[in-house]
Amino acid sequence: MSQHIHKIRVWDLPTRLFHWALVAAVVGLAITGTIGGNAMVWHFRFGFSVLTLLLFRIVWGLVGGRWSRFGAFIYSPASVINYLKGKGKPEHGIGHNPIGAGSVFAMLGFLLAQVGTGLLSDDEIAFAGPLTRFVSNATVGLATDYHKNIGKWIVLALVVLHIAAIAFYLWRKHNLVGAMLHGDKELVAAAPASRDDTASRLLALGVLLVCAAGVYWISSLGAPAF
């Protein structure tokens, strides 16, 4: 007897748009940072965009759709160990599983560290972050060293691992990219769907605008304007 398949909305539209906008902005950061020179103007702009997106995701992790909330994928060490032993729970296959959740938090954390140190960095040529004048030269030096020589490689490694994980799950017949495009997953067992209606999308837009306004204010403290 064939199993009944339940199609549910897992990733709401704001989460999906955040994901792909972050991909584009991080790629832009990597390219402009490598080119340097006049491209640094755009490097700052991409950096401010990433910061806006990260702040949005933090707030959306508290008020967003069911499976986009951090509470849906914060797992105890025991849950992670059981998942690695092949003893995962059914809900692990809906949103982020314990390994995917770790990847998400690592990416958010290290991207915050990267853009945060960027705000405090100075290339000693023509460009300086907007917060450099508020800290000591020693702090600026440490932030610049991390931003240029450590953080970017950590972020790159996380991106490579993320792509490898997507390829692995695709090989296992789990299309993670498709779900992040249309938002739905087909599940054997019924599960609650994420809210994804007009009201929630308007809320997300409001959150994004507030975050953008805050980042614009930060950018006005000393860095090149948008």
How would you portray this structure in words?
This protein has a single domain (6-108, 151-219), classed as Fumarate Reductase Cytochrome B subunit, CATH 1.20.950. Strands 1-2 form a two-stranded antiparallel ribbon. The chain has 7 helices and 2 strands, in the order βααααααβα. With 226 residues, the protein is mainly α. α2 crosses α4 and α2 (40-63) packs across α7 (198-219). The relative contact order is 0.19. It is 62% helix and 4% strand.
Overall tally of domains: 1
Structural class: mainly alpha
Largest sheet: 2 strands, antiparallel
Identify the CATH architecture. Up-down Bundle
Number of separate strands = 2
Low-confidence stretches: none
* Widest sheet: strand ordering: 1-2
Anisotropy-based shape: globular
Span between termini: 59 Å
C-alpha-based Rg, rounded: 19 Å
SSE pattern, N- to C-terminal: EHHHHHHEH
Number of helices, where a helix is a run of at least 4 consecutive DSSP H or I residues: 7
The percentage of residues in β strands lies in: under 5%
- Which fold name fills CATH's third level, the topology? Fumarate Reductase Cytochrome B subunit
CATH class: Mainly Alpha
